Amino acid sequence: MEKLIINGGSSLRGEVEINGAKNAAVALLPAAILASEGKCVIDNVPDIEDVHCLERILKSLGAKVNKLNSNALEINAQTIDTVNACTEDVRRMRASYYFIGALLARFKEARVELPGGCPIGVRPIDQHIKGFEALGAKVSIEHGAVNIMAEKLVGTNIFFDVVSVGATINLMIAATLAEGTTTLENVAKEPHVVDVANFLNSMGADIKGAGTDVIKIRGVEKLSGCNYSVVPDQIEAGTFMIATVATKGDVVLKNVIPKHLDSISAKLIEMGAKVEEGDDSVRVYVDGPLKGINIKTAPYPGFPTDVQQPMCTLLSSVPGRSLIVETIWENRHKHVDELEKMGAQIKVEGRTAIIDGVETLTGTLVNATDLRAGAALVIAGLIAEGETQITSIEHIDRGYPHIEDKFKKLGAKITRR
């Protein structure tokens, strides 16, 4: 198994190009199924394992997927000849549930195996099922697969009991071809939700309100292929911002939307870091002392749960006590055990991590338990004394394209073996 080997102590300096958003791309690819005419050409696609997995699933359904380059795909969904998405690739990744909404919308039936993903806590799809049933579908779960079918889908009002990115996107996809108007209330507002809506509209959908509390979808008869570019990755950008502050460096992040990073920037500034925004860039640097802060994760525009683990690493290395309260996932502190092996002083009480900053972390052998925990350990390795070895890096590869190459260009001593 491959490992990342990091020798810490180098400040990150230079420029880094941020990729297209993982969380958008993993929804856009299944949504391309809705194009019954023409082809979808999607650019700025991150070259990550989750995308490769979705490519294989699309091909297993009969779609033609042509890789134009490492960051661009051409998808022809006219050749799909089955609604059964029951492969190992489907089982292994969480975002495969978007195939339910896409296949249901176009073919009025689907069989999709229950998905997996990172082990960060219970992630039910009850809100998805509630919404599909409200549109007129019949849903059953048998032998670990979701079976869904409908004579027709009819627009209706759907209020989500909890704010769910996955359910918001899945119902938005499903409702595009329903009869009449569907109103989704108490929806997620994340940038990738807006990106999926923009993609669907580019295909001919009629969606309004994405990014607000209420989304309205007026059903259309058909969707066609389009050319589209994935929104920049808010989470990858946040990770590099945090890594820059942790190493007391000076880095310009290019191909970002600064507004999407407001909650992260605000906390880094509160710590004592400097953040300067450009039109599509952000410069992050440190020229003075840093201090501990308190963070509470929340749906967008709040502080993203996906960067609280990297932030935990940063806070473990600055003076004072910090608190991180995780409100989204109940099991997202697994990285703490690994950070403690490196000398971090962290106590977890329920969903709260109490962090007392230490002067130094020490390199050792650690294990990436999930995607964002892996990013947290990479940052820990960058600031630790000596050598850090990170195993189970397949988790990291699910969301960070060529992570060692990007950090190496910024001056980090990091290799893959």
TrEMBL record:
HAMAP family: MurA (MF_00111)
Pathway: Cell wall biogenesis; peptidoglycan biosynthesis
Residue positions of the active site: 118 (proton donor)
Family: Belongs to the EPSP synthase family. MurA subfamily.
InterPro entries (alphabetical): Enolpyruvate_Tfrase_dom, Enolpyruvate_Tfrase_sf, MurA_subfamily, RNA3'P_cycl/enolpyr_Trfase_a/b, UDP_GlcNAc_COvinyl_MurA
Protein name stated in the entry: UDP-N-acetylglucosamine 1-carboxyvinyltransferase
PANTHER family per UniProt: UDP-N-ACETYLGLUCOSAMINE 1-CARBOXYVINYLTRANSFERASE, UDP-N-ACETYLGLUCOSAMINE 1-CARBOXYVINYLTRANSFERASE 2
Species classification: Bacteria, Bacillati, Bacillota, Clostridia, Eubacteriales
Name of encoding gene: murAB
Keywords: Cell cycle, Cell division, Cell shape, Cell wall biogenesis/degradation, Cytoplasm, Peptidoglycan synthesis, Pyruvate, Transferase
UniProt binding sites for phosphoenolpyruvate: 22-23
Organism: Sarcina ventriculi (Clostridium ventriculi)
